[in-house]
Amino acid sequence: MDHRIMRTRTLLALTSSGLLWGTTVPLSKVALADWGPAWLTVARFTLAALPLAWIGRRHLRRALTPGVAGWGVAGYGVVIVLQNAGIERTSVSHAALLIGAMPVLVALLTVGLGRGRVGPVAWLGFAVALGGIAVISVDGVGAASLAGDALVLVSLLFAAAFMVAQPRLLAGRDPVAVTAVQLAAAALGTLPVAVAVDGVPTAAPGAAPMAAMVGLAVGGTLVPFTLFAWAQARISPEVAGAFLNLEPLVGVVLGVAAFGDPLGVPQVVGGAAILAGIGLNAVPLGGRRTGPAAAGPAVTNPAAGSTAGSTAGPRELTGAGVG
């Protein structure tokens, strides 16, 4: 196939992934009208795990280990339950912008654990992005609240730990099979929490919340995961990771347009700071380029279901992922 055609298809796949992942916070907000935070997690991951398990069925046995399943419960189940509880209490725009800072938190944790290194430009990016988070979180106007923002931030800390641990879990295993096991484990592990905290459902969700849940499972998990994984094998990780920056932008636009979230100075300044920080960290450091993502395992972002390329061992980090 012509190189230009393949590159165009790859970029379209990456763009589609970023746009679809940007809908996860708005869709969660709609679904939470009738779903409890834990029940929404159970339903979403059950629906997403089944087709992934079929696709990766030949590799499930190798992926089915206590470590993989345990991190699935913590990295997907705990993360999304906390995130759903936060989204229920804050605005779509706030949640989307905070989740957009995930690459910076992952890079900071990786450096703190001695698994990577960064230069002064990256540290500047960390500071700018974290400053943006602070500006957004302390501004509780409209539907936003400090409690909701705090729950989202706590979920991101769990998600960052998961992303740092994920490369070792993926080493020598099929990423689709690993994701299927982790999503299934997250659904099973969250089930007792759903019964205890949300209670046993007494009525079926309405049409809009049900459609939003299906959209989260299919459009927010299955489709973008498949498109991004396909594109990763054809382009360098730092380029692929840059498309993850579409997520907060889409979330903010939908929050303002569809949910009436206020767009004031704190949101603009904080959002611009987060995006600027991500941009500073997206610049490859050290002058060493990374090859296609096939050179290393995929790292799944539980906060939105996204994936970024990674290679093992100490390395320079970019805000678009650990790679």
Automatic annotation (TrEMBL):
<feature type="transmembrane region" description="Helical">
    <location>
        <begin position="242"/>
        <end position="259"/>
    </location>
</feature>
<comment type="similarity">
    <text>Belongs to the EamA transporter family.</text>
</comment>
<dbReference type="GO" id="GO:0005886">
    <property type="term" value="C:plasma membrane"/>
</dbReference>
<feature type="domain" description="EamA">
    <location>
        <begin position="147"/>
        <end position="280"/>
    </location>
</feature>
<feature type="transmembrane region" description="Helical">
    <location>
        <begin position="207"/>
        <end position="230"/>
    </location>
</feature>
<dbReference type="InterPro" id="IPR051258">
    <property type="entry name" value="Diverse_Substrate_Transporter"/>
</dbReference>
<dbReference type="InterPro" id="IPR037185">
    <property type="entry name" value="EmrE-like"/>
</dbReference>
<feature type="domain" description="EamA">
    <location>
        <begin position="11"/>
        <end position="137"/>
    </location>
</feature>
<feature type="transmembrane region" description="Helical">
    <location>
        <begin position="93"/>
        <end position="114"/>
    </location>
</feature>
<dbReference type="InterPro" id="IPR000620">
    <property type="entry name" value="EamA_dom"/>
</dbReference>
<keyword id="KW-0812">Transmembrane</keyword>
<feature type="transmembrane region" description="Helical">
    <location>
        <begin position="121"/>
        <end position="138"/>
    </location>
</feature>
<feature type="transmembrane region" description="Helical">
    <location>
        <begin position="176"/>
        <end position="195"/>
    </location>
</feature>
<dbReference type="Pfam" id="PF00892">
    <property type="entry name" value="EamA"/>
</dbReference>
<feature type="region of interest" description="Disordered">
    <location>
        <begin position="291"/>
        <end position="323"/>
    </location>
</feature>
<feature type="transmembrane region" description="Helical">
    <location>
        <begin position="144"/>
        <end position="164"/>
    </location>
</feature>
<protein>
    <submittedName>
        <fullName>Transporter</fullName>
    </submittedName>
</protein>
<feature type="transmembrane region" description="Helical">
    <location>
        <begin position="265"/>
        <end position="283"/>
    </location>
</feature>
<keyword id="KW-0472">Membrane</keyword>
<feature type="compositionally biased region" description="Low complexity">
    <location>
        <begin position="291"/>
        <end position="313"/>
    </location>
</feature>
<keyword id="KW-1003">Cell membrane</keyword>
<keyword id="KW-1133">Transmembrane helix</keyword>
<feature type="transmembrane region" description="Helical">
    <location>
        <begin position="68"/>
        <end position="87"/>
    </location>
</feature>
